[in-house]
Amino acid sequence: MKLRPLGNRVVVKTLTEEESTKSGIILPETVDKEKKAEGKILAIGDGEKIKKLDLKEGDTVIFGKYAGEEVKLDEKEYKILSDEDVLAVIE
After folding, report:
1. Is the dihedral of CA 64, 66, 67, 69 positive or negative?
2. Per the structure, how many domains does the chain have?
């Protein structure tokens, strides 16, 4: 990865929604899918606040739906979140 977050920030790869509904209906690619507010941490900054959260690379976190800044690098989309944007860790 070529992104290194500064201070109290983390880089997250947003997890995409499933391709079918709970009832088994498969959604075509033309349907505009909403991104989940859930992602996997790829990189962590070196700020004091982010260290206190005890986050690790590979953790799956929940964040605010409209939180952070979206970045596109090498045809992949990432989010850069501050320590306040991270709401919970899924264990």
Report:
1. positive
2. 1
- pTM score of the predicted model: 0.76
Residue 47, domain extent = 9-17+32-90
CATH code for the domain of 40: 2.30.33.40
CB neighbour list of residue 43: distance below 8 Å, 6 or more residues apart: 1, 3, 4, 5, 10, 11, 57
Is 23 inside a domain boundary? no
pLDDT at 41 over 60: yes
Task: Check residue 17 and give its pLDDT.
Answer: 58
Which of 35, 64, 55, 46 is closest to 5 using CA atoms? 46
